[in-house]
Amino acid sequence: MQGFTGPAFLDEGDYLYFLSCLADAARVADLAVHAWVLMPEAVQLLVTPSYQSSVAITMQAVSRRYVETFNRRHGRRGAVWGGGYGAAVIEPERYFLLASQAIDHAPVRSRLVADPGSYRWSSYTHHIGLRVDSFIKDHPLYGALGNTPLERYRAYQALGAQPPDEREVDNLMQSTLKGWVLGSAAYCEWAAQTANRRLMPLLLRDRPQKERLRT
Fold it and tell me: Per the database record, which ranges form the Transposase IS200-like domain (predicted)?
């Protein structure tokens, strides 16, 4: 999701309220949130839906509540988000940790901070044990990083010692914008049959909003 006419977050209250909306909506829709980042003009999420409609229900509820309050707080009118959201289905074993790291390091790539740990509005500090985000449901692949919480924190931090490969991140982002599936041939075939969707759209349409990644 991307701000339509400028920043979608203007102060601390905006960030906190968006997270509250996300936590409430995800709980109602049974959507597992694994990683998140809120930047002034963009939102990225890594999620697993329990039902086909979980994502749409969550995003619609968040957008409706947030936009109404944002406009009231700041004396504005009209749209906040630009055109909805993009989504990519990813094969967890190949792409989950890369996607999680890409989201947590997005503020660094966007030159908002030099270190992901110094950015408050992402799940990075949750993943390295400096904060608990109560609405996050840790994915089994994150749990497999270690037998204890401390081992997982250290392993995740070590993964991020070197920023994610830019080409792989670009591939993730482009796939999200275009609604593609990322994974092995077998996984893509399974996803196509399950979702009854075309993997490579015949007509590629420009979708200016930022990415939301989901497994």
Answer: 1-106
CA distance 204 to 200: 9
Residue 213 confidence (pLDDT) above 90: no
84: left (phi over 0), alpha (psi -120 to 50) or beta: left
Cα angle vertex 145, ends 25, 34, to 5°? Answer: 10
- pTM value is 0.86
Q: Say which CATH topology domain 12-214 has.
A: Alpha-Beta Plaits (3.30.70)
What are the tens digits of pLDDT across the range 94-108?
Answer: 999 999 999 999 999
Q: What is the DSSP string of 128-168?
A: TTS---TTB---HHHHTT-SSHHHHHHHHHHHTTSPPPHHH
Query: Within a 13 Å sphere around the CA of 62, how many CA atoms are in the beta-carbon half?
Result: 30
Kindly state the greatest CA–CA separation across the chain: 51
Helix ranges (DSSP H) in the chain:
12-29, 54-74, 92-104, 106-109, 124-127, 140-143, 149-159, 166-178, 185-195
Residue 120, pLDDT score: 97
CA distance 52 to 204: 23
Which letter does DSSP use for residue 80 in this model?
Answer: -
pLDDT tens digits for range 18-63: 999 999 999 999 999 999 999 998 899 999 998 888 988 999 999 9
